Amino acid sequence: MNFSTVAKAVFISMGFTGWPIIGRYSGATGGWVGIIVLGATVITVGIFSAKEMASIPAPGLKAITLLVVAGIVNGIAFYLYSMTTTDSSVPTGVFVVTVSLLMVTVAPVLDYIFNEGTFSRNQVAGLGFAFIAILMLSRG
After folding, report:
1. Neighbour tally for 49: CB within 10 Å
2. Alpha carbon 124 to its chain's center
3. What whole-number distance in Å separates Cα of residue 31 and Cα of residue 36?
4. Stated pTM of the model
5. 140 pLDDT exceeds 70?
6. Could you state, in order of their start, the residue ranges of all structural domains in the chain?
């Protein structure tokens, strides 16, 4: 990956991991955190995507159906995430790291299932180390 791609990854990771921590710091409840962050996200993505959406045709029914289902699953996950990160009995930082590590382990599996991705020996070892990290985090 080139520097620009890595810089984008850094920004994205800060955005994805920052809002739940800031949400808990704000003192708002999980429902409010989720709705406000998701609403601001929809507006921002709409602004950045407006030119593309106006210049190309809409995706087909199959793509729309798959994306709606993915959106529903993401909405449930987003709700659970915002509710859990604002729960005072859950250590927010550890929870965010655990979710991030699980994303690292789930992403290549889903890529393998849907996009016929492959696993190298190093990736399998990385998944193993991520699993060990998750176990270590969950045991406090």
Report:
1. 10
2. 21
3. 9
4. 0.82
5. no
6. 1-89, 91-140
